[in-house]
């Protein structure tokens, strides 16, 4: 007598949903990616299957996978900017300082299985031109906000200024995201070392920008 083996989960269609939202599709895409798989490797059919819809239903919310991925990148950038902004506010009452606390917050999000972070860190190098441009826009937003912070923090130190604060903000942002991408491939046991390195590098950039402007930090 023979028995039927259980169907493979991959071969069993997910229950179809009556309706689908953009958020549902974004969540489905995030569920499929991780440290070793980027959005650029996903197919429309995979995302539709994860969301529990027919592939044609995908087009009610997005033109194609490129549009979905850009939406993910935009959401990732907004989420991280909000979190880092909150860290900067907390730094006012912390003896660790804004640099250290911001870097720690960045690394905490990276290790918290925050797949939005993986989107930002991976798609800027592994994705299509559209993805890279979307990531670059998000980095530009980080740079704009950081530039204002650098100017404010310098001015609070006896009216100091920085040489080309926009360039300093760009150097810091690109440094953090490049090292964040490296951290994804390293074990968490290396985090403290990376945090220390990033914090020192950021301070070196700030000190250099202020010194070149004739206003070196007092400590």
TrEMBL record:
Keyword Cytoplasm assigned:
no
Q: Which residues bind DNA?
A: 43-62
Task: Classify the source by domain of life.
Answer: Bacteria
Tell me which UniProt keywords the record has, alphabetically: DNA-binding
Q: Any idea which GO molecular function terms this record carries?
A: DNA binding
The reply to whether DNA-binding figures as a keyword in the UniProt entry is yes
Instruction: Note the coiled coil stretches, chain numbering.
Output: none
InterPro entries recorded = Homeodomain-like_sf, HTH_TetR, HTH_transcr_repressor_FabR
| Domain spans labelled HTH tetR-type | 19-80
State what protein this is by name.
TetR family transcriptional regulator
